[in-house]
Amino acid sequence: MESSALVQPRLPPEPRAYAFKFHGQYLDFLVLLLKNLFLTVITLGLYHAWARTDRRHYLWQNTELDGHRLEYTGRAKDLFRAYMKIAVVYGAFLGISYLLQTNSPLAFLVFKIVSAIAF
Q1: I want to staple 47 with a disulfide (CB 3.0 to 4.6 A). Which of 43, 57, 90, 101 is the partner?
Q2: For residues 28-55, b (16+ Cβ closer than 10 Å) or e, as one string?
Q3: For position 49, what pLDDT does the model report?
Q4: Into how many domains does the chain fold?
Q5: Could you write out the DSSP letters of every residue in 72-100?
Q6: Does residue 8 belong to any structural domain of this protein?
Q7: One domain for residues 29 and 68
Q8: Model confidence over 4-18: pLDDT tens digits?
Q9: How many of the other CB atoms lie within 10 Å of CB of 98?
């Protein structure tokens, strides 16, 4: 079976252009940053998760893509819990490292090598 017509390769569709717009105001964002900085300093860093969430919320809600505003659904409480979990794990590693260093220098060296390889 011979075909006289050549098979045309299928071309990918033309890329679509999306309209991108930011509606935020410089002064509003500056006030938010200063408020977050003040509260983070006053609370000795405990407010950092809430400050980060406020910043992300402001930036996302003022960003428009193709006529739709973005929505940030993250919660500061979840971010704070993650920070606390990291602090506990880090504290455990510091505690184990300190105990091994004072009791057995060889065990301390092995722990350092294993933790460097694993993390």
Answers
A1: 43
A2: eeeebeeebeeebeeeeeebbbbbbbbe
A3: 96
A4: 2
A5: ----HHHHHHHHHHHHHHHHHHHHHHHHH
A6: no
A7: yes
A8: 567 778 888 888 888
A9: 11
Ranges under pLDDT 70 in the chain: 1-5, 119
Separation of alpha carbons 76 and 42, rounded Å: 18
What does the block give as tokens for 100? 């091994």
User: The whole model's pTM is what?
Assistant: 0.68
CA 7/CA 111 separation, integer angstroms: 65
HSE-CB of 52 using CA atoms within 13 angstroms:
13
- Tens digits of per-residue pLDDT, 84-98? 999 998 888 888 777
H or E element, residue 12: none
Residue 88: domain span: 75-119
Residue in the block written with tokens 């996302």: 60
Residue 71 burial (C-beta neighbours within 10 Å; 0-12, 13-18, 19+): exposed
